Hints:
Layout: H1 11-29, E1 38-45, E2 48-53, E3 57-58, E4 61-62, E5 65-68, E6 72-75, E7 87-89, E8 94-99
Antiparallel strand pairs: 1-2, 1-8, 3-4, 5-6, 6-7
Amino acid sequence: MRFFVPGTFDASTADVLWSITRNKLQKALDVPIWDRRIQSLSLMIDREHVNVTIGEAYHGEEVLMIFEAPQLLICTAGHGMYRGKPIVVPKERAVAVEFFDA
């Protein structure tokens, strides 16, 4: 699937928003964030499989971006995107990771 950010109208706007958010998070969290763009995650949390996908709800909010850093960073409007910090998930909880097409 081609990269997108929910609520953007075209690929160039999505790219700019992704870059701005990535830079903001790198500075705020003082961690490197890799270039690969994650479309969805399958996580094992408390012995349950949990799917996190761009454009779908997670913790009651639409997932807007998922970043690959030393830990996985899930961004919604209220977590990491416009307010607050991202939802941080240890990488070892990821059972599967699906990336957007390059």
